[in-house]
Amino acid sequence: MVDLIISLDGYASAEGWPGWWGLESPEYLAWLEEEGKKDFTTLMGANTYRVMSSMSEQAAGEDSGFSEEEGAALTGLAAVPKVVFSSTLQEPLAWPNSELVSGDAVEAVKELKRTRTGTLTTLGSLSLCRSLLSAGLVDRYRIVVFPVITGRTGRERIYDGYPDVSLELVNSRTFDGQLQLLEYIPTLISGPPVRRP
């Protein structure tokens, strides 16, 4: 499952804005904490590993600057099994429950899907998500849309370089009347989708 957060105009972050664009809400953070208790293995690249492991460590400290809900969501990530794809990181990885894979991510995920139980899900890692989707390895595509447009300050355009994909909506939810979760089954397509009567 590709799992992403985005601004309405398709950015993963924005220069000068805090994480979650400053709009994380109690209901959303509680949902994140519950999701962290499921049988997930989280897939990520080196940059996401560096950022998230640092935030998780900071949240575990005293006077972290995070709210109680944010801190719980971030520190809970330490217990989640993680597979990190990188040719630059070295073992052992400091963040608990992290496994390093230095080979081809697409081939490694094919093997993980064959041999592991539970759900494989991404965390950030836009190029990894794009590669897995392009390879046809994504069974679910889940996004949480934050109600902001960051056209001037937006960074990390999510959909650049994506293949064409048809999306079948299978789940949706609104958190605290503002954040919208959308979950789809993706299908790679070579042209416009055909409308069924």
Plain-language structure description:
Strand 9 and strand 10 (179-188) form a beta hairpin. It contains five helices and ten strands; from the N terminus they run ββαβααββαβαββββ. The chain has a single domain, classed as Dihydrofolate Reductase, subunit A, CATH 3.40.430. The longest helix has 15 residues, at 46-60. The strands form three sheets. The protein has a four-stranded mixed beta sheet. With 197 residues, the protein is an alpha/beta fold.
Low-confidence runs of at least 5 consecutive residues: none
| SSE string | EEHEHHEEHEHEEEE
What is the H level of CATH, i.e. the homologous superfamily? Answer: Dihydrofolate Reductase, subunit A
| Strand portion | 25-35%
Radius of gyration: 17 Å
Would you state the CATH class?
A: Alpha Beta
Compute the average pLDDT. 90
Q: Any idea what the shape is?
A: globular
Number of helices: 5
Q: Largest sheet, order of strands side by side?
A: 1-7-10-9
Assign the CATH topology.
Answer: Dihydrofolate Reductase, subunit A
Kindly report how far apart the N and C termini lie. 29 Å
Q: How many distinct beta strands?
A: 10
- Structurally, the number of domains stands at 1
CATH architecture: 3-Layer(aba) Sandwich
Largest sheet: 4 strands, mixed
**Fraction in helix:** 25-40%
Question: Which structural class is indicated by helix and strand composition?
Answer: alpha/beta
Domain Bacterial bifunctional deaminase-reductase C-terminal: 2-180
Organism: Paenarthrobacter aromaticivorans
Pfam family, one: RibD_C
Protein name: Dihydrofolate reductase family protein
